[in-house]
Amino acid sequence: AQTVTQSQPEMSVQEAETVTLSCTYDTSENNYYLFWYKQPPSRQMILVIRQEAYKQQNATENRFSVNFQKAAKSFSLKISDSQLGDTAMYFCAFMEYGNKLVFGAGTILRVKS
Amino acid sequence: DADVTQTPRNRITKTGKRIMLECSQTKGHDRMYWYRQDPGLGLRLIYYSFDVKDINKGEISDGYSVSRQAQAKFSLSLESAIPNQTALYFCATARDRGYEQYFGPGTRLTVT
Question: Which of A35, A47, A99 sits opposite B97 (nearest CB)?
Answer without folding.
Answer: A99
